[in-house]
């Protein structure tokens, strides 16, 4: 138990530049506190002290703002950063070295008792702030879930999923360094500018501007050639409005 605690503390210090020392992590990081209390609750749950397990989980939620069902499986070196509003369901499995940010829900879409209702996160998955992963499917090792995404189907290993509903924007080999993937940000920001939606809008805007410039150059060339140009779209619209008013 103490060996795993030391590993958890070391992984937090490695992944969070704000963490200065082990004592600060133990006393001031609710994600670590919630996981430690989950171990107690999980032991009670698996040893048929189910009410006690639920009560410990309830106390942990009150103290940390993080709700982890005692039936959930949490791996080693899992880092719940900030953590407020995180909900992890009964049949969820969180693999080793996963990172979960605040407001994340690992929830279910089924009410069938005894069924696998919650997702499985394999080794090294990162789930951005506010994301919802809903269902009994698997998110592959090293995958990234973007901020505020809603994931309702499996995500391949090494892929990046964003949006609502989430779609795959990049599939690659899992990185050895946490979160170092272009196009992904745990907080929804994208300093690389590779977000597919914003990139599409930018390309569309540039295309429209280019078309307008070409039309203007063509109009000037026609005027220089001494050819009368047709009325502009605004002039045609005015004429159409005048005709409509006369008919009325």
Automatic annotation (TrEMBL):
E.C. code: 2.3.1.30
Top EC group: transferase
A GO MF term: serine O-acetyltransferase activity
Listed GO biological process terms: cysteine biosynthetic process from serine
Alphabetical UniProt keywords: Acyltransferase, Amino-acid biosynthesis, Cysteine biosynthesis, Cytoplasm, Repeat, Transferase
Catalytic activity: L-serine + acetyl-CoA = O-acetyl-L-serine + CoA
GO (cellular component) term, any one: cytoplasm
Superkingdom of this protein's organism: Bacteria
Keyword DNA repair: no
Compartment(s) of residence: Cytoplasm
Involved pathway(s): Amino-acid biosynthesis; L-cysteine biosynthesis; L-cysteine from L-serine: step 1/2
InterPro entries named in the record: LbH_SAT, Ser_AcTrfase_N_sf, Ser_O-AcTrfase, Serine_acetyltransferase, Trimer_LpxA-like_sf
Transmembrane segments: none
Family indicated by similarity: Belongs to the transferase hexapeptide repeat family.
Family matches, as PANTHER family: SERINE ACETYLTRANSFERASE
Protein name from the UniProt record: Serine acetyltransferase
Organism lineage string: Bacteria, Pseudomonadati, Pseudomonadota, Betaproteobacteria, Burkholderiales
Gene name as annotated: cysE
């Amino acid at each position: 138990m103490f060996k795993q605690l030391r590993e958890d503390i070391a992984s937090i210090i490695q992944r969070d530049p704000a963490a200065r020392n082990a004592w600060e992590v133990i006393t001031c990081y609710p994600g670590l506190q919630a996981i430690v209390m989950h171990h107690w609750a999980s032991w009670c749950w698996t040893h048929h002290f189910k009410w006690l397990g639920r009560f410990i989980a309830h106390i942990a939620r009150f103290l940390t703002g993080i709700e982890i069902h005692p039936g959930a499986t949490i791996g080693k070196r899992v880092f719940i950063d900030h953590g407020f509003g995180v909900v992890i369901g009964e049949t969820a499995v969180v693999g080793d070295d996963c990172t979960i940010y605040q407001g994340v829900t690992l929830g279910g879409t089924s009410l069938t008792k005894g069924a696998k209702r919650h997702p499985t996160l394999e080794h090294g998955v990162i789930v951005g702030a506010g994301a919802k992963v809903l269902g009994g499917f698997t998110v592959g090792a090293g995958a990234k879930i973007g901020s505020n995404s809603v994931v309702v189907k499996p995500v391949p290993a090494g892929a990046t999923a964003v949006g609502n509903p989430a779609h795959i924007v990049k599939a690659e080999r899992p990185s050895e360094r946490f979160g170092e993937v272009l196009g992904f940000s745990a907080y929804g920001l994208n300093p690389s500018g590779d977000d597919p939606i914003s990139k599409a809008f930018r390309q569309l805007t540039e295309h429209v501007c280019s078309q307008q410039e070409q039309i203007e150059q063509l109009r000037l060339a026609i005027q220089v050639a001494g050819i009368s140009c047709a009325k502009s779209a605004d002039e045609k619209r005015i004429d159409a409005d005048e005709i409509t008013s006369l008919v009325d």
